[in-house]
Write a structure and sequence with these properties.
With about 250 residues, the protein is of the alpha/beta class. The protein is built from eleven helices and twelve strands. It has a single domain, classed as Alpha-Beta Barrel (TIM Barrel), CATH 3.20.20.70. It is about 35% helix and about 30% strand.
Length: about 250
């Protein structure tokens, strides 16, 4: 059985890790490189770095930060934010990122997924989707959750897979930062629809929340920020608890 992954997410603004609730009220948490090094030591399976202001400010993610991260850690990490071309992706992969994540730019130009996948392989391409439930429909957003689109979560996730995405990282804006649990039913629907891994993001507040999304939600990985940043749930203790719940993890 394939091991489930535990992935701390570091939202980066101007080189500093920040966290908010429902994508708002951001507070500084710590240094992006130092926190990544500590998570690697603690047993995280992967890391995700999202430059949350890059798309909104119309600039590219700084490759220099990626180089510093790559020098400091020995686990895979994904970088997203402001990637609008194959050249942007190339710059980050050459700087040391293991995967790149596209969101707003892929919604604006879905062929970007195919072009990056054709050059580097699907395993390098993560399509991130930030969506909010509006009158019973999960509507995709762009620019750090500030703009709604006419795209619906499930159809867009399926298209992203068809275009060459290797993974889907879905964040529920309704659950993000609330520590009230993941949208497990939505993840289960995505798992039944797709053949690629689904990373669950938004709402982790307890060990049970992570157990639920990896079992009921059938997610391949659980991504979280607040519970790790504030040491509410240390990764070693979390993994031991998951193992006791008969969930396969790497210890």
């Amino acid at each position: 059985m394939v091991a489930k992954r535990i992935i701390p997410c570091l939202d980066v603004k101007d080189g500093v890790v920040v966290k908010g609730i429902n994508f708002e009220g951001l507070r500084e948490v710590g240094d992006a490189v130092e926190m990544g090094v500590q998570y690697a030591r603690d047993g995280a399976d992967e890391l995700v770095y999202l430059d949350i202001s890059a798309t909104r400010e119309g600039r590219s993610t700084f490759a220099e930060l990626v180089k510093r991260i790559a020098r400091g850690i020995d686990i895979p990490f994904t970088v997203g934010g402001g990637i609008g071309s194959v050249e942007d992706a190339a710059r980050l992969l050459e700087a040391g990122a293991d995967k790149i994540s596209v969101n707003s730019s892929a919604l604006a130009d879905p062929s970007l997924i195919s072009r990056i996948a054709e050059k580097y392989g699907s395993q390098f391409v993560v399509v991130a989707i930030d969506a909010k439930c509006v009158e019973g429909r999960w509507i995709c957003t762009t620019h750090g959750g500030t703009r709604f689109t006419d795209r619906e979560l499930f159809s867009w996730a399926r298209e992203a897979q068809e275009r060459g995405a290797g993974e889907i990282l879905f964040t529920s804006m309704d659950h993000d930062g609330t520590r009230a649990g993941y949208a497990c039913g939505v993840y289960a629907q995505l798992d039944s629809l797709l053949s690629i891994p689904v990373i669950a993001s938004g709402g982790a507040g307890s060990v049970q929340d992570i157990v639920d999304v990896l079992t009921e939600g059938r997610a391949s990985a659980a991504l979280a920020a607040s519970i790790f940043h504030y040491n509410q749930i240390p990764i070693p203790a979390l993994k031991r608890a998951l193992q006791q719940a008969n969930i396969p993890v790497r210890l």
